[in-house]
Amino acid sequence: MFGKKDRKLIISDSDIEAALAHLNSLPQTITKSMPNPWAKQQFIDWLKKSIPQKIEYAISFDVATGIYGHIVPVSYGYRSMPDDGRYLVILSIRSVKTDFDRLNELN
Predict the structure, then answer these.
(1) d(CA 53, CA 2)
(2) What is the pLDDT along the chain (107 residues), one digit of tens a residue?
(3) pTM score, two decimals?
(4) Is 102 left (phi over 0), alpha (psi -120 to 50) or beta?
């Protein structure tokens, strides 16, 4: 699954908490009615199932509604953190819908 280098994948609790806050703000979500430890485990299960087969730097993937995962070295963005061979999954969360009546051309 990890190719030549067996790199462990990790994610921070702060990313999980932000993802759950987003999911719990949606009108229909299963995690909102769960105790926090269960919701956290449910999200981790969804995340594990959404991770692509090929694990490498800069891979992005869908995790849940409005939540996207990105694979980076654990030291990504932290100069004082040594690269210990692990990959960090960072999440981006999109909480707004595209307004197709207000688009801007980029080229």
Answers:
(1) 8
(2) 444 357 889 999 999 999 999 999 998 889 989 999 999 999 999 999 999 988 888 899 999 999 999 999 988 777 777 778 889 999 999 987 788 999 999 99
(3) 0.82
(4) beta
Angle at which helix 13-25 crosses helix 36-50, to 10 degrees, equals 100
Closest of 62, 59, 65 to residue 96, by C-alpha? 65
Q: What is the pLDDT of residue 16?
A: 97
72 forms bridges with which residues in the sheet?
A: 88
Residue 9 token pair: 């994948």
- Sheet with 9-10, side-by-side order of all strands: 9-10, 87-93, 67-73, 60-64
* Coil vs helix vs strand at 8: coil
Sign of CA dihedral 57, 84, 45, 13: negative
CA–CA separation, 68 and 58 (whole Å): 12
Is residue 52 within 8 Å of residue 9, measured between CB atoms? no
